[in-house]
Amino acid sequence: xxxxxSDPLIAIRxxxxxxxxxxxxxxxVEDVSFDLHHNEILCVVGESGSGKSISANAVMGxxxxxxxxxxxxxxxxxxxxxxQVSEAEMxxxxxxRMGMIFxxxxxxxxxxxxxxxxxxxxxxxxxxxxxxxxxxxxxxxLRDVGLPEPDTLGESYPFRLSGGQRQRVMIAMALALEPSxxxxxxxxxxxxxxxxxxxxNLIKTIQAQRQMGVMFITHDFGVVAEIADRVAxxxxxxxxxxxxAEEVLNAPKHSYTRRLIAAVPNFDPPRRDPVQGTxxxxxxxxxxxxxxxxxxxTKGRRTHAAQAVSFDIRRGETLGLVGESGSGKSTVGRxxxxxxxxxxxAIRFGELDFAKLTSQELRxxxxxxxMVFQDPYASLNPRRKIGRIIAEGPIAHGTxxxxxxxxxxxxxxxxxxxxxxxxxxxxxxSGGQRQRVxxARALALDPELLVADEPVSALDVSVQAQVLDLLxxxxxxxxxxxxFITHDLRVAAQVCDRIAVMKLGEIVExxxxxxxxxxxxxxxxxxxxxxxxxxxxxxPEVALQAAGKARPEA
Amino acid sequence: MNKLNFIARRLVKAxxxxxxxxxxxxxxxxxxxxxxxxxxxxxxxxADEKFLQQLEERFGLDKPMHEQLWIYVSGIVVLDMGFSYxxxxxxxxxxxxxxxxxxxxxxxxxxxxILLGILLGALAAARVGRWADxxxxxxxxxxxxxxxxxxxxxxxxxxxxxxxxxxxxxxxxVGAGFTGLDYALDVAQHLVLPALTLGLFFMxxxxxxxxxxxxxxxxxxxxxxxxxxGVRPGRITRVHVLRNAILPVITLAGIQAGQIVGGAxxxxxxFAWPGIGRLMFDALLQRDYNLLLGIFFVSxxxxxxxxxxxxxxxxxxDPRIELK
Amino acid sequence: MTRRESARDFLRRFARNKGAVVGSGIVAIVVxxxxxxxxxxxxxxxxxxxxxxxxxxxxxxxxxxxxxxxRDIFAGILYGAxxxxxxxxxxxxxxxxxxxxxxxxxxxxxxxxxxxxMRTTEFFQTIPNFALAIVLVAIFQPSITSxxxxxxxxxxxxxxxxxxxxxxxxxxxEFVQAARVIGQSNRTIITSQILPxxxxxxxxxxxxxxxxxxxxxxxxxxLGLGDPNTMSWGYMIGAARTVLRQAWWMSFFPGVxxxxxxxxxxxxxxxxxxxxxxxxxRKGR
Lengths: 554, 324, 285
Prior knowledge:
The complex is a heterotrimer of chains A (554), B (324) and C (285).
Chain A: E1 10-18, E2 27-36, E3 40-45, H1 52-60, E4 69-77, E5 80-81, H2 87-93, E6 98-101, H3 115-126, H4 131-144, H5 150-153, H6 163-175, E7 181-185, H7 193-210, E8 213-218, H8 221-227, E9 230-235, E10 238-244, H9 245-250, H10 255-263, E11 279-292, E12 301-314, E13 318-322, H11 329-336, E14 344-349, E15 352-353, H12 359-365, E16 369-372, H13 386-396, H14 401-414, H15 431-443, E17 449-453, H16 461-478, E18 481-486, H17 489-495, E19 498-503, E20 506-512, H18 513-518, H19 523-531, H20 541-547
Parallel strand pairs in A: 3-8, 3-9, 6-7, 7-8, 13-18, 13-19, 16-17, 17-18
Antiparallel strand pairs in A: 1-2, 1-4, 4-5, 9-10, 11-12, 11-14, 14-15, 19-20
Helix pairs in contact in A: 3-4, 3-6, 4-6, 6-7, 7-19, 10-16, 10-20, 13-14, 13-15, 14-15, 15-16
Chain B: H1 2-31, H2 36-45, H3 49-58, H4 65-77, E1 83-84, E2 89-90, H5 91-126, H6 131-145, H7 148-162, H8 180-218, H9 221-228, H10 233-271, H11 276-285, H12 289-317
Antiparallel strand pairs in B: 1-2
Helix pairs in contact in B: 1-4, 1-12, 2-3, 5-6, 5-8, 5-10, 6-8, 7-8, 7-10, 8-10, 9-10, 10-11, 10-12, 11-12
Chain C: H1 3-16, H2 18-40, H3 73-109, H4 111-126, H5 129-139, H6 144-171, H7 174-181, H8 186-222, H9 233-240, H10 248-276
Helix pairs in contact in C: 1-10, 2-3, 2-10, 3-4, 3-6, 3-8, 3-10, 4-6, 5-6, 6-8, 7-8, 8-9, 8-10, 9-10
C-alpha cells in the first residue's frame, strides 16, 4: 500500500482489545477507529477507564499480554498491519520508526544506568551510528530537549535529575532515531504546572520542527486546548467524538463531550463579595523546618518547608492555598490539624493557640478543625464499615455508640448518600462516593474549620464538579470556614474567595481570587498563571447548557 | 567522600556489636546454674581444685561485678578467651587452628549457593509459568525444607557407602602424607560432599529471592521504557532486569551469613570436618563452656566481617548510595 | 460483602493453589498423628520391643525397623510428631509476641524508640542464630522449656522487621492520619486501625516460622541438646549417626518425616500468601 502525505500516518480500524475474565467489562477498547495524520498533534482524551491509554499501548504492541490483548481490527503503519507483524519486526519499529513516552518520569529510567548509556542504548538496539558518532549524537539530543550541561549530563545517574528533567531525557530517547510517530501517554500528568508548560512547549516545538505525528493521551482538557490540532474523545472503550480542536472544544456535538467539558472549571474566577466577620482561624508566622542528611561526620541541611506563614480565615469563607510540589501548602495544612508539629508560630482559634497544646489537651480540642484527605481509596480503613468510620470520631470523644451511629446516618444523608450505606464497606463505593464519606467523617465532630487537602485531585473531572458543589453547599449551610489546598488553579478559581500563592514555604501573594488572577503582583504568581494550559479557552455555552441535564453519578 | 562516611559508620557499629556479644557472654556464664568458676572450667576442669583456684584468681571472681566485666572484656580484646582444661590448650589457639578449615568450607558453600541460586532463580523467572520454572521452584522448595544434617547423612550413604565415589569423613586422607598439588586435590575431593550439601541447602533461598525479585523488576516502568526503545529481550533481561534484581539478593546474602555459619556446625559434625563447627560440637559434649562461648564470639565476628563486606559491595553496585 | 462472603472468597483462592491444598492435607495428618499417637501405639517409644537393628518391612509390628537398642522406629515417628508440633507452635508464639510488640512500637512511634529497638533487632540478627540457640540451650541445660525459649529468642527479629515495615507504611496511610485527626488515642489507633491490617502478612510469616522452628528443634536435638525425656525426630537421626552404614533406616524415616512436615508448612504459607494478597494476577500463574 503506497503512502502519500495525505494518507494517515497511523490508521486504526475497528480495534478491539479484550480484558481478562472478571474485569468490569469484557473489552477495554471496542471497535475503535481513528487516524493519526502526518504533521499533527492528535489528543486522545477521556476519563480513567476510557481505554485511551490501552489504545496507545496497542499501537506500540506493549499491551500486558496475555491478560490484555487485541482480538479484532487492524493498525496500519507504513504499509503494514501492526497487529499481524511478528514481535521481532515490532522490536525493529519501536524506537526507530515509533517512539513512546510515559506518564511517570520518576520510575521510567533504569536507576542503575547512566543517562548517556540509556540514550545510546537506542542506537545500539538498532545498529545506528558508530561509537564516536553515538556520543556526539547523544549530546546533541540532550541539548535539543533543553537539558543543562549536555556535555557532561550523560555521565549522571537518573536520581540526580528532577521529574521534568527526566521527562526531557525520555523525550530525547524517544526521538533519538527520528521516528515519524511519537506516542505520549499522559506525559505531563505527574508534573508541576510550570514544568508541564515547559514540556508541552518542547513537544509542540519538536513536532513542528520535525513534522511528526504526535498521539497525545490526556485527561486534561486544558492541555487539549493548549496543543491539540485534532481531538478524539473516548468513553468506556469507544470513540464518541472526533474532529478538529476548534470543533470539539468550542462546538462539541456528543452529549458526553458536552458534559465532560462543562465539568472543567473555568479559568476565569467570578467576582465575589468579600466575607466579613471575625476570623475563625488565625495563623501567625508558622514555621516548619526539616533537617536532612545528618550523619556522623556531616552536619545536615535545614530546609524550610514553611516559613513565616500568616493568614486568617473567616466563617463562610474559602481560602485557597495554591502552589506546586514543595511549596509547603500541604505542610501548612498538616500543621494546622497537628499531624505535624510546627517549629514556630501560632495557630489560633479565637484565644486558643492550637500549636501549643499538649497531646492530652489536643484530644479535647480536636473539634475545632477537621480534615478531608486527597486519596479516596487510602483515606478509609478498608476493614471498617462506612457508618463506623464516620462514628469513630464522636465515639473517641465519649459519645455513645448508638448516638454516634445515628449521627453518622444523618451525615450520610447530608452528603447525598443513602443512610443504608452505613452498613457497607468502602470497596463497594466509587471514588466520588468515598470522598463524600470522607467529608461526612470530617463533619462528625462539628468543626469550625475544614482543611481540604487536594480533595478532588484524585477524581475524574466529571465527578470533581459534584464533590466541589457538595463542599460549597455544606460550607454555606453549616457556616464553616474552608481552607482549600490545591495545585489546580482552575479549581481554585471557581471555588475560593481568597487565594494565597505559596512558593518554597512562603506565601508570595495573598488576596481575593479575582484580583490575583486578573492582576497578579508577584513574579511567581504571574509565572504560575501563565503556565496553566488552555487558559485562553473558555467553556462553550452549548456545553454549559448540556450540564443542566443529567450529570454522571458520583 | 560519602562512601567513606558510610563505611566508617558501619565499622563503628561493628565494634559496638562485638562488644555487646562479649558482654552477653559474660552474663551468660553468670546465668548458668552453678558456680561461675565451675562453669568456666567445664566438666573436666571442675574436678581439678587447683584449676578452679587459678580461674578464680585470673577472672577475679571475688571482686565486684563491674571489675570482673572489665577483666573479662580486656582479656577478649587481646584474644585471651580462656583455657580449655579438657583439650589442655588456650581457647584462642584451638579456635584459630581450626578456623581455616571452616573458612574453606563456608566460603566454598557460599559461592556455590549464591552462584547457583542466582542462575537458577534467573532461569526460573525467565521461563516463568513453564515447566522449567515449576521444576526449579519445586526443587528449591524441597531443599529448603530438608534438614541440613539429614541431607548430609543421606549423601554420605549414597555417594560414599553405596557408590563409593567420594570420601565420607575428614578433610584429608588419613596417613597419606600428600604434599603440594596432591594435597590440594585430596582436600578438594573431601570438600565436595560437605560443600555441596551446605551450599545446596542455602541455594534454595537465593533461588527463591532472585526469582521473586526478577519477576517484580520485570513489571517496573523502566523495563517498559526499554521495550519501547526496541531493546531486544535478551538484553533487557541481562542489563535492565538482572542488575536491578540483584540488589536485594546482596542484602539477603549479608543476612544469611549468620545462618551459613550455623549450618557449618551441623555439616562439620556429620562429615567430621576439622573446623570450628566440629569443635563446637566437641565443646558441647564436654560441657566446656569457655570453649563454647569463644567459638560463639569468633563465629559472630566472622558474620559481622562478612556483613561489612556485603555492605561495601552494595555501595559499589548501587550508585544512589553516594547520597547517604 | 459480608464476613461470610469474604471468608468463602479466601477459601476459594486458597484452594486454587494445589500445593497449598496438599500441604494442608499433610499438616492435618501430622496433627492427627500427634494427637492420636498414644491411641495407636500405647507403649512408650523408649521401650525395647524387639531385636536391635531389624531392617524395615521385615518384621510384623515394627514396620520401620528397630534401632541400636531394639526400640520401635515407627513409634518414634509417631511420638516425635508431638514434640515437633509442640515446640514449633509454642516457640513461634513466643517469637511472635516479642517480635510483634517490638516491631509495632518501633514502627508507630519512630524516633529514638525506633532507633533503640532497631539496634537491638539488628544485634540479634547479626549473631549467627543457630549458634546462639546452641549456647542458650547448653548454658541453661536442655529441656523442653529451654529449647522453646531459645528458639523463640533467636527467631523474633524477622517478625519485628516485618511488623515495623508494615506499621511504618500504614502509619502514613491516610486513614490512619484521619484517625489521628478525629482524635483517637494512640493505643486505639494501633490496635483497631493498624494491627487488623497487618494480620495477613503476620499469619503468612507465622506458618513459615513454625516450619523454621521445627527445623531448628530437630537440629538442636540432633546435636544432643534436646530434652532428654522426649523422643524427637532430630534425636533419632542423631542417634543414627554413628551406625549409618549398618542401619540406614534409623536416619531415613525421621528425616522424611521432618521433610514432609516442613515442606507442607511452607506450601501452606505460600498458599496463605496468595490467598490473602489477591493482587493483580501474577505473571504466568
